Automatic annotation (TrEMBL):
Record-given protein name: SET domain-containing protein
Organism superkingdom: Eukaryota
GO cellular component terms attached to this protein's record: nucleus
Origin species: Pleomassaria siparia CBS 279.74
Matches recorded under InterPro entries: SET_dom_sf, SETD3_SETD6_MTase
Length: 480
């Protein structure tokens, strides 16, 4: 990024010089080193036990001073001493006041400061050098078009497409917001001399997505050196990350987790993350992953639904549903499906309201009760005597959507590897395809069982006219 002569990539420093940077800036290592493990070169740098470690008997394996944590709060503090950073954060408005927006702009600024083509821009700080140790992340947003085409039929394909579109909108918004700043116009956006590209924005996004962790008392943040630790779930997780009472970042070996010299000190990025999210955010799947764990599928309101425009206008829920598998148990959840499942004859109604400024808004009601948040609809339906009927409709809607997704997966298949496609993406897509297909097939069986159970309920039987009320039967006998 920002190399002289528009060369592609980052300005890099060899990882074996990281201990010098750490020592100079107050980062302390105890019993560990950061480097590449033999036989696992494709995984990049990681945290390695420098000698035998005893779980519960060691102090912090890594200590990071709080001022080095790349958090929104620290970026705001640094902006007080860096007028150029302050300018760009103010220029991008609300986006710069979010953690993600602040971190991405901070990373762009550090790359700018480190660029040998620029002078007298920004304030040099320890993190300007640290970003040179960060590798390019192999996320799907950097795959070739042919490699992304392999994702057809998987839930990762629409996610990557949406992400690329979102990144492009952000990039153009940042350009529009900052091109009025003289030094940005010259060094970033000038047609002949500017060095900022969409690839640069993609890089800082990938760095943030793959390295940000939620630290107690800090929130989402990047913590130098600790963010070098790789992921392992369950019992394989070797260490924990947290902050001490002063806000410093710590990496601690788990109690009872002994390690031998040369072993990899891992942390968890989240044991419940699904296969799709693992590839999307981190670019890998665990070798022992046997389940997709969770899948989110979009769900649309049928075009023939006369209330479709009104439903779309008032909806506040993600338009889809999530299927998850844990310990062999299949579950699904959705706030949106209930809005799709009910209509006017059930008690759903919409009214137009004029606001103070003369604008018109649509209000939703359920049985004359205002529905200001469609995520509350399920709770209202659960209290209704026809709850089982609504459940049956929801299950059928979800089951039909799963059937369509399975058909799409089968039709796409796993194509043979073309010479233009790298081995890594091809293998990842093959595993993702198989894991998602298995979870969808298991979910289909589970939903069929759920549908059968709900169908047999008294409420559904009466609603469908398949059961007679006892009093009705007595009246018919008397009439005869």
């Amino acid at each position: 990024m920002f190399k002289r002569g528009r060369e592609e990539g980052w300005l890099k420093r060899p990882i074996d010089t990281l201990p010098i940077w750490a020592q100079f800036h107050g980062v302390k290592f105890h019993g560990i080193e950061i480097g590449v493990m033999k036989g696992l070169e494709d995984r990049g740098s990681t945290v390695i036990a420098a000698h035998d470690l005893a779980g519960g008997g060691e102090g912090p394996l890594i200590f990071v001073p709080k001022e080095l944590i790349i958090s929104r709060q620290n970026i705001e503090l640094m902006a007080k001493a860096d007028q150029h950073l302050r300018q760009v954060l103010d220029a991008i408005g609300d986006f710069g006041r979010t953690t993600r927006g602040a971190v991405l702009m901070f990373l762009i600024m550090q790359a700018t400061i480190a660029c040998p083509d620029f002078r007298h821009i920004g304030v040099l700080n320890p993190l300007t050098e640290y970003i040179k140790y960060l590798p390019d992340e192999p996320l799907p947003t950097f795959w070739t078009e042919d490699e992304r085409e392999l994702l057809a039929g998987t839930t990762l394909r629409p996610a990557v497409r949406a992400k690329l579109s979102s990144l492009l909108r952000e990039f153009e918004a940042v350009r529009t917001a900052t091109e009025g700043i003289d030094w940005c116009a010259k060094h970033w956006w000038n047609e002949s001399e500017g060095l900022m590209t969409f690839q640069d924005w993609m890089r800082v996004d990938a760095i943030y997505r793959s390295r940000a962790l939620e630290f107690p008392g800090v929130g989402d943040a990047m913590v130098p050196c600790i963010d070098m630790a790789n992921h392992a779930s369950g019992d394989a997780t070797a260490a924990l990350y947290e902050t001490d009472e002063d806000g410093n970042g710590l990496l601690l070996l788990r109690d009872g987790k002994d390690m031998t010299k040369g072993g990899e000190v891992t942390i968890t990025y989240g044991d419940d993350k699904g296969a799709c999210e693992s590839i999307f955010s981190y670019g890998f799947l665990e070798e022992n992953m046997t389940s997709a764990r969770t899948i989110f599928l979009d769900l649309d309101i049928p075009m023939e639904d006369q209330l479709r425009p009104a439903k779309m206008a008032v909806n506040t829920a993600p338009p889809g549903f999530r299927i998850s598998e844990r310990d062999g148990r299949i579950d699904w959840e959705s706030d949106f499906v209930w809005l799709v499942a009910v209509n006017e004859e059930d008690g759903l109604d919409f009214k137009l309201k004029q606001t103070i400024d003369g604008q018109t808004e649509i209000e939703a009601f359920w049985r004359d009760q205002e529905l200001d948040d469609t995520c509350k609809l399920r709770h209202l339906l659960e209290q209704d005597g026809l709850w089982d009927v609504y459940q049956l409709r929801a299950v059928v809607l979800i089951q039909n959507r799963i059937e369509r997704q399975l058909q799409t997966l089968r039709e796409a298949g796993i194509p043979a590897r073309d010479p233009s496609i790298r081995e890594g993406p091809w293998q990842l897509v093959g595993r993702l395809h198989n894991l998602e297909q298995k979870l969808l097939e298991d979910a289909r069986v589970h939903l069929e069982d759920q549908k059968t159970t709900v169908f047999q309920s008294d409420a559904v039987q009466r609603y469908l006219g398949l059961a007679n009320d006892e009093n009705d039967e007595e009246e018919e006998v008397d009439f005869s």
